[in-house]
Please model this.
Amino acid sequence: MLEFGNHKILVDCGFFQGTKNNEDKNFGNFKYNPSKIDFLLITHAHIDHVGRVPKLVKEGFRGQIISTIETMELARPMLEDALKVMRVKYPDKTLFDKNDIEKTFSLWQGKNYEEKIELFKECFLEMQDAGHILGSAILNISCSGIKIAFTGDLGNSPSPLLPDTEFPKNVDYVVMESVYGDRNHESKEERRNKLKQAILIGIKKDGTIVIPAFSIERTQVFLYEINNMIENKEIPPTPVFLDSPLAEKVTDIYKKYQKDFKESVKQEIRAGDDIFIFPGLKIVKDAKESEEIEKTAGAKIILAGSGMSEGGRIVNHEMHYLPDPKATIILVGYQAVGTLGRKLEDGAKEITPPTLPYIKGGKTESNSGKIKVRAKIEVIKGYSSHKDSEHMLEFVEKTNESKKLTKVFVIMGEPKSSLFLTQRIREYLDIDAVYPEEGKEYELK
Model:
C-alpha cells in the first residue's frame, strides 16, 4: 500500500499459497478498508498477484484497476479457473463468485508499456517490461518528485520467449521481490541440456515424463523447447499431452501478443515456424480424455498444471505415476513451502495425497492412504521465471546508475531468501536495504 496525501494506491492483491495458515489469510479480512483504495495496480497475472482482486471488489473496492493490456487479458482465465478450483476445494466457503469477476473487469483498464498515466495531480505511473511473463510490468510511480519502482516478479533473463528485464531509471526507492534471493540458477545452456537429458533418459526407460508446469509462461516455454528439440532431432518423436484447459487459453493469448516476444523468436515465427505446435502434440480437452492418457503405451510426456502440484489434473497424473519407477517427474519452478511439489523437491519417500477432491474418471473422488515415491524426481531450477540472487543484485546495481537510490525494500520471498538478499545489497552495493515488517509504515522522503 502506497499512501500519498488522501490517496491510497494498492499494488497487487493475490493468493497466499502453500500452508493452512495461508488459506486462512485468503479467506480472512483485509487489513485495510477496500472501499478507501483509489487505485489497484497489477504487476502481472500470476494468481499470487491477482487471486484476491474479486474479493477486494466484493468487499467494496470501486477504484480503478490498471495493468498492461496483456495482464488484463491473462487475468480473466486465471481468475475463472481459480473460481472453479475453489468451488471444488472449498465447497462450504465462498471467496468470490462469477459476478465479482465481472465487476472486477468493469473496473480494469489495460495500458501500454512506457505510457505516462496520470493517476491524480502530481502522481504518475509508467510501466516497464519485467521480462517475467507476458505483460509483466515494473510499476514506476512518481509522486511530487519521489519515484518508487515496484518490481513485481523480475524475469530470469535471458528468457526463451521474452525480452530481457528493463531497468528503472532515476528512482529513489525500489520495492523488489526476493524469491530466489539466496540461490542461483543453472545457465541457459545447462538448463536446456538437463531438460533434454531428463527427457531422453525417461524415453529410454519407456516411461512417462510428467512436468507440472504453471499455465502462464512455463507451459509456453516448454512447448517451445520441446518443439525445437523434436524439430532438431535432439529427442525422438514422442507423444506430448498438454492436459490443461487453462494453459490452452493462455497459449492462445500468447499467440495473440507475439509482438511482445524477443526478436529471435519473432524471426522464427516470420520464417513459418508455429512455435507452440509440433507433430505428436495432443491438446487434451476434458477429464475423460485426461484419464485416457494412462492407456497410451510406451514413453510419453505430460504437461499439466498446477506448477506446485496443488490442484488441477496434474494431481491425477502424479498420484498415478509417482509409484512407477519407470516414470520421471520434472519440477521446473518455485515450489512454495507446504505444497506437494516442495515435498517432492525435498526428497519425500512417500506422500499423503492431497485431501482436496479431484477429478478422475469423470467423477469427483477423494484420496486416502500413502503413496510411495518410486518415480525419478528431477529438479531444474534454471527454468524459473524469477531472477536468481546474482541477477537481482545486478538489477539493483543497474537501477542505481543515477546514484539516486535511497532504499530498497526486499519482499516476497521466504525470510531466509529475503534477509540474504537484503544483506548482500548492503554489503556489495553499499545501498540501504530493509526486510520490512508486516504492517509497519515507512515514510518516503
Q: What stands out?
A: The radius of gyration is 22 Å. The longest helix spans residues 69-89. Residues 26 and 171 are 32 Å apart (CA to CA). DSSP finds 14 helices and 22 strands in the chain.
